[in-house]
Write a structure and sequence with these properties.
The protein has helices at residues 2-44, 50-87. The longest helix is centred in the first third of the chain and has 43 residues, at 2-44. The chain contains two helices and no strands. It is an all-alpha fold. The radius of gyration is 40 Å and the shape is rod-shaped. The protein has two domains: 8-47; 48-83.
Length: 98
């Protein structure tokens, strides 16, 4: 009787192991199909790669810094021009150009 119980338990253990292996394979297959479908869906979208985004971002930051520097320079030149124009005295009897 004892040997029959052991054989029965061994058969159940083998069956359970086989079932778990089958379930693991099914899970792996489902994950692979879902991953493939997701990759196809993303490939169909017009997405930018991270490296490209970072490169454009760096260019935009550089352009902003250059733009701010140029704006400061223009303001300085306008201020210097206003001082030089206001400081110059008009000659008596000189006509203004229109």
């Amino acid at each position: 009787m004892m040997q029959t119980d052991n054989r029965f338990l061994d058969d159940i253990a083998k069956l359970a192991t086989s079932a778990l292996g089958t379930l693991q394979s099914a899970r792996d297959e489902a994950q692979a199909r879902i991953r493939d479908q997701f990759e196809r869906m993303i490939a169909g979208m017009d997405l930018v790669k991270r490296e490209e985004f970072e490169a454009v971002r760096a260019m935009a930051q550089k352009a902003r810094r250059e733009n701010e520097a140029l704006a400061r320079r223009v303001a300085e030149l306008e201020q210097a021009f206003a001082k030089s124009k206001g400081g110059a005295k008009a000659r008596p009897g000189a006509k203004k150009k229109v």
